[in-house]
Amino acid sequence: MRTIRKFTLATLIAVLAMTAAASARPLASQRVAVESRGDVFAFALTPLGPGSLKRDSGTTTWRDPVRRVVVRDGQRIDVNDTVGRFQGSRGSLSARFHIEWTNAGNDFIAGSGRWTLIGGTGEYAGLRGGGRSGHVWLPGGKITLRAEGVLRRG
Fold this sequence. Notes:
Elements: H1 2-24, E1 29-37, E2 42-47, E3 56-62, E4 66-72, E5 75-88, E6 91-105, E7 108-120, E8 127-137, E9 143-153
Antiparallel strand pairs: 1-2, 1-9, 2-3, 3-5, 4-5, 5-6, 6-7, 7-8, 8-9
């Protein structure tokens, strides 16, 4: 009986130790949003859930997109593949964007797409992930975007 109690007590201590260690580690993944305005080439990263990433902001640069045109169900779609680099105070993020633009009328162009993180420095080093994005090309050439997704370590 004493052996069973010792085994049960040892098992309970081990389980409590593993639970404490697991709760002390940062979360493996975190939802984030990145918003950017093309008229000032600025961005803001906002955490959408708990995790180690904090709010950040800075400047955005874009690689010239690779462009092609397709027609789906009679509608012209301008497809762009590009890379955005977001340089903030906590480090930099580089992400590949695939955006499909359609004419929304009245000089507005709407785009939706997906993005994949391809590199990072500083606090963003070693992150992976991606998500979906929405874009609007406003009259006068200004662009705004919001990209939401999940980033994780490793």
